[in-house]
Design the sequence.
């Protein structure tokens, strides 16, 4: 008898009248907002302008969604193009199915386009948004909980996930909640990148490379626990191989970049520093104008005092002359 387990939602969508609210889509949207919010704070701290991260995200997010869906459909094509399947389901992204590898690759392409339009170096932008992406993944994984998918092997552990659906070959029971494992791992990755970036002043894309490497290290063992259908190469799931290859690429980039371009970028957004200088010059000009106005008032007051003094002296001399004339007549 199971003493405890994590229950699955009875359904992944709630209807408010004619409007469906899907848990999977809701988690993705919240994750995007968190990534943009945190990325904006980090971008400003690095010397960029507020709002730049959101402007570039307008390019990166749609590209990322398209790339994530393409990777999922291509690697799991049998779910949509095999006998008895409806290929139209490949476009139903709200039902789940986003491959992080395609999302990051296409999202980076969209970010590159946005950065190029703004004259911003992509590595600097990637460093700023890296922890936010990890947090977004942590939130997005809960969308799999709503859809009762991406679970691991059967288990009777107290934190086991209860699967109640029997659609698409699911077998009701309790399983390892690999969605939860990955969510917690992504939170740890985000905190690791934030700490390392503050401690070692990572730049030129190395904070992003650290995020990629750390995520891949966790994804490899979590992927190995999953039991859903997947393509295998030499006995390992395709995503395990992908995680290992991307991990090696990220570590290589980190090491080579540290040798060739140590330190952090001094300027991440052209014109941002100039705007700050211009603002400072304007303040100085206002201060100088105020001081000049004060000096002018002092001179005016001094002039008025001098005029009053001259008038008083002339009157005194006139009175003295009148007295002398009166004495002479006497």
Sequence:
């Amino acid at each position: 008898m199971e003493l405890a387990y994590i229950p699955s939602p009875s359904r992944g969508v709630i209807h408010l009248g004619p409007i469906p609210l899907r848990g999977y889509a809701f988690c993705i949207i919240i994750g995007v907002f968190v990534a943009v919010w945190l990325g904006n704070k980090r971008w400003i701290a690095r010397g960029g302008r507020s709002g730049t991260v959101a402007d570039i995200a307008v390019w990166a997010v749609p590209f990322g969604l398209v790339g994530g869906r393409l990777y999922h459909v291509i690697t799991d094509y049998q779910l949509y193009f095999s006998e008895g399947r409806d290929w139209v389901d490949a476009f139903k992204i709200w039902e789940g199915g986003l491959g992080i590898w395609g999302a990051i690759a296409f999202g980076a392409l969209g970010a590159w386009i946005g950065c190029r339009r703004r004259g911003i170096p992509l590595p600097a932008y990637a460093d700023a948004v890296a922890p936010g992406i990890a947090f977004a993944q942590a939130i997005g994984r809960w969308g799999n909980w709503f859809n009762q998918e991406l679970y691991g092997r059967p288990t009777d552990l107290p934190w086991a996930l209860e699967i109640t659906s029997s659609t698409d070959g699911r077998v009701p029971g309790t399983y390892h909640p690999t969605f939860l494992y990955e969510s917690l791992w992504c939170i740890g990755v985000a905190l690791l990148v934030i700490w390392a970036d503050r401690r070692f002043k990572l730049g030129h894309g190395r904070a992003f490379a650290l995020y990629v490497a750390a995520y891949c290290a966790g994804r490899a063992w979590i992927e190995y626990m999953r039991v859903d259908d997947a393509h295998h190469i030499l006995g390992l799931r395709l995503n395990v191989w992908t995680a290992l290859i991307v991990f090696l690429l990220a570590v290589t980039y980190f090491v080579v970049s540290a040798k060739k371009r140590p330190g952090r970028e001094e300027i991440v957004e052209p014109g941002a520093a100039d705007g700050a200088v211009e603002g400072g010059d304007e303040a100085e000009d206002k201060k100088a104008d105020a001081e000049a106005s004060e000096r002018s008032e002092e001179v005016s007051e001094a002039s008025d005092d001098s005029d009053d003094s001259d008038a008083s002296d002339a009157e005194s001399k006139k009175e003295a002359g009148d007295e002398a004339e009166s004495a002479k007549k006497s």
Notes: The first strand starts at residue 13 and ends at 16. Strands lie at 13-16, 19-22, 161-163, 173-175, 232-233, 236-237.
